[in-house]
């Protein structure tokens, strides 16, 4: 019986010793990960957009024009004109951003009302990123030119 007690104590001390030395490192690791996650989230924005592609867009196809026939014949000026009209309707409350995006955007995000979700620096084309970070939440950009086409952006978070 004494031997069993000695083995039990030895085993318990061994476990306790491992916990005492490992637990602070584990807690530190968790806290460090949480801090990194929160700082990453703090540096992210969330946005929705409406993209109108045109002849100069890097990809001519879209979810609503898979062959790129309409896009290939749309000038940049025509795309900008269309986007300005859409923006005016949204800003004057004649239309809702998400509904306009769902109907007119050439981006696959149209299926989500233009929502791109959260993103950080370096994840989007530079003009798009800069415009988004310069907006206040709920604000809608002027026309933004990228290699993808022309956009209006609404910062949502």
Structure description:
- There is one protein chain.
- By secondary structure, the protein is of the alpha+beta class.
- The protein starts with a helix and ends with a strand.
- It contains five helices and four strands, in the order αβαααβαββ.
- The protein has helices at residues 2-42, 69-73, 76-91, 97-104, 126-134; strands at 45-52, 115-119, 144-146, 149-155.
- The model is unreliable at 34-40 (pLDDT under 50).
- It has two domains: 1-42; 45-155, Chitinase A, domain 3.
- The relative contact order is 0.17.
- It is elongated.
- Helices cover 50% and strands 15% of the residues.
- A four-stranded antiparallel beta sheet has the order 2-1-4-3, sandwiched between helices.
Architecture blueprint of SSEs:
Layout: H1 2-42, E1 45-52, H2 69-73, H3 76-91, H4 97-104, E2 115-119, H5 126-134, E3 144-146, E4 149-155
Antiparallel strand pairs: 1-2, 1-4, 3-4
Enzyme class: isomerase
Function: Prolyl cis/trans isomerase with specificity for phospho-Ser-Pro bonds.
EC number: 5.2.1.8
